[in-house]
Amino acid sequence: MKRGPIDARAMLSDSGKILVDFPPGLVSCVLRDLSSAGARLLVPDAISFPDRLRLVIDAERETLPCQVVWRRAGEIGVVFTWELGPAA
User: Fold this and answer.
1) With respect to CATH, is domain 10-80 assigned 2.60.120.200?
2) Secondary structure letter of residue 21 according to DSSP
3) Domain segments of the chain: what residues?
């Protein structure tokens, strides 16, 4: 059985930034593909990213909370998450 993508991905070469809380910082990245569910990012090899981060998409001027779901040399795959505040 052939399995297709859950959501169409747009192939890109847009710039972005990864914002991490600890240690605080902003790291440049390249968005290689993007869907409504997640993205594949080209990142510097020497930097170890935490499991949770924020992706700042330069073209959109938008910041999206993310969860890293896979890692390869020079790439990470993320899914977009909703950050929930404390329960009322």
Assistant:
1) no
2) T
3) 10-80
DSSP state of 65: E
Per-residue pLDDT tens over the stretch 8-28: 655 667 889 998 876 778 999
Structure tokens at 83: 């950050």
pTM for this one? 0.76
β-bridge partners, 26? 19
Burial classification of residue 55, based on how many CB atoms lie within 10 Å of its CB (0-12 exposed, 13-18 middle, 19 or more buried): buried
How far is the C-alpha of 35 from the C-alpha of 64, rounded, in Å?
A: 12
Give the closest residue to 17 by CA, choosing from 85, 79, 71, 66.
66
Instruction: Retrieve residue 62's tokens.
Output: 């938008």
